Amino acid sequence: MFYLYVRVVKAKDLPTNPMTGSCDPYIEVKVGNYKGKTQHFEKKTNPEWNQVFAFSKEKIQSSVVEVFLRDRDMVLRDDYVGKVVFDMHEVPTRVPPDSPLAPQWYRLEDRSGDRKVRGEVMLAVWMGTQADEAFPESWHSDATSVHGEGVFNIRSKVYVSPKLWYLRVNVIEAQDVESLDRSQLPQVFVKAQVGNQILKTKLCPTRTTNPMWNEDLIFVAAEPFEEQLLLTVENKASPAKDEVMGRAILPLHIFERRLDHRPVHSKWFNLEKFGFGALEGDKRHELKFSTRIHLRVCLEGAYHVLDESTMYISDQRPTARQLWKQPIGILEVGILSAQGLLPMKTKDGRGATDAYCVAKYGLKWVRTRTIIENFNPKWNEQYTWEVYDPCTVITLGVFDNCHLGGAEKPVTGGGARNDTRIGKVRIRLSNLETDRIYTHSYPLLVLQPSGLKKMGELQLAVRFTCLSLANMIYLYGQPLLPKMHYLHPFTVNQLDSLRYQAMNIVAVRLGRAEPSLRKETVEYMLDVDSHMWSMRRSKANFFRIVSLFSGVISMSKWLGEVCKWKNPVTTVLVHVLFFILICYPELILPTVFLYMFFIGLWNYRFRPRHPPHMDTKLSWAEAVHPDELDEEFDTFPTSKQQDVAKMRYDRLRSVAGRIQTVVGDMATQGERFQALLSWRDPRATSLYIIFCLIAAVVLYITPFKIITLVAGLFWLRHPRFRSKQPSVPSNFFRRLPSRADSML
């Protein structure tokens, strides 16, 4: 995409106004109907601006570029000082990596352009693309309606996620803990806080002045460390009252950074305790250091701090850079354009969309520039990432910018000033062939309380270049996460809590950038609500399981038809194959693997030509009930009326009841297997162990091929020799007892 660039550097030797005796200069760049202005300086004849203006070549309808220098007048019309005119056909073209065009001094001309006037201005004019280094910081002709701080919110930027650490606090014991009530021994626990994260140890089971816990408390911390570790030892004086008996405030930078599973050294820390001194008056609030606490604290560098779901993980490297391996590839993404976007807000009584795109992969976030009031925006921006694992996902989201300093209002009503989500695209790198450019349009779908809505399409160009094929193949046999996640794993509850805290930290840190990457944008990209209950998602996952077993079910139906001789020719062929495998058992496994090899070759013809996109049918989003959608978008805890919450609770109980029944049936079948040898039913166990003895003798004296042949022929017998009643083993198994009899 080509742009006309005008760099206004400075001016010198400007004439003063004879009325005021001073000059308040500013520059106005005019190309056709587009005008851009610099700031004005008061009483300065040698101003410096160093500002760049960019005009889209597609929208230029003029053959000249006019640069006016004016003297600002607060009362009357601004005075004309001079101008410089450039012919568009004479403007040079610059393509990086060419060096920047050197600015030159130009003499100012009068209105008619016939003669020179006093004053000179330093300018550079060239034709370039959006890849020009001047583009990100330049004033755009497309953004003339943006005001104030909104100018900073339309620029493209690259962000880096903060470096996250797991902080492990092992609370071992405390000494000399004294209760305020000297008549009884304290029963204490330790409360630890890092920023907004608060965790507590269990209550010491015994009342003692030297309690022990040996508990691990895990926090998330981000560099640079701004928070401190605040520890308080509290006494459970009563069920409703906790007494603070001492505290310690420890900066995080003092703790050891661990790169493996070796234990770190423990340390004793004194607690500050504010109590009554021996004397009244001045020593009443004397600072004491009587209680000590024993801790083993470290910053875990061998873990990967999860701030996104492992299903869509884009980075799996450990925190410590020393443990990183070499990249195995390069990912190049061209964010080209979007088509058919819907109006997201109203400006001056008409619909408008100010779209920008955000891409997240690994630690690097990118944000394109905002295209103002355009339903078919073109960005044509290219970004590059290093790839350390092919089984990762890049996420791209399109948003409507609601922070441009205007008087826009959301289409949906309300006064919220959040950037509205337009849609999301995920691309798994392992789905891409190496060194191939994929140019494809992806639908932008958003699920709203009113239902599913297609917001438009996003056109992307993606290429994954492999640097080392051997390393990439080697990675397929390695664990997805660093080894510490498997040597010393966290519990599921810990991972959920830590991921939530990590997402909050990332959102806060990126929100402090300029321009900020807003919290709602970061949360949408990181799927902050993916763990929340949704009837729609539950149905979608259930039908995913059903489709997963559809192949097995189809195979079992086919075998059932073979056994029932529905197609005698097929059944005879199966008998022939069965006899061959019985005679040559060494062919069984080679036949199975050769069969899978040919299936893979056959399916190669039908391989996907483009990466998959969001599937509305798979997500069960097309036929979802409005009340289920309303429940999915409800807050937590619920903000609905009592009767609505009661209805949804009853519906959830109904679904949970069915799940409970299925789980109970599975437990019953497992307990029946255990009952075969547990003598809960003495007659059944006696029959089973006698059968096992007879079977052992028969299998010992009979060749295995004969046993297999007889079993196969019995299984494939003609329907004339079959009974419609259940088989004897099935009847025997269903009569076995389970522990369901003992349940209340």
Low-confidence parts lasting 5 or more residues at pLDDT below 50?
A: 275-286
Instruction: Trace the largest sheet across and list its strands.
Output: 7-8-1-4-9
Characterize the main sheet.
Answer: 5 strands, mixed
Distance between the termini: 73 Å
Number of strands: 32
The percentage helix is 10-25%
Query: Measured on Cα atoms, how large is the radius of gyration?
Result: 36 Å
Kindly name the structural category.
Answer: alpha+beta
Enumerate how many helices there are, as a single number. Answer: 13
Mean pLDDT: 85
The shape is: extended
Chain oligomer state: single chain
Strand content: 25-35%
Subcellular location: Membrane
Organism: Salix koriyanagi
Membrane topology: Multi-pass membrane protein
Pfam families: C2, PRT_C
Write the layout of secondary structure elements.
Layout: E1 2-12, E2 25-31, E3 34-37, E4 48-56, E5 64-71, E6 79-87, E7 104-109, E8 116-129, E9 139-140, E10 157-160, E11 163-175, E12 188-194, E13 197-200, E14 212-223, E15 228-238, E16 241-251, E17 256-258, E18 267-270, E19 273-274, E20 287-288, E21 292-300, E22 329-339, E23 345-347, E24 350-352, E25 355-361, E26 364-367, E27 378-387, E28 393-400, E29 409-410, E30 420-428, E31 437-448, E32 451-466, H1 469-475, H2 484-487, H3 492-511, H4 519-525, H5 535-548, H6 550-563, H7 568-583, H8 588-604, H9 626-632, H10 642-675, H11 682-701, H12 704-715, H13 728-734
Helix pairs in contact: 3-4, 7-12
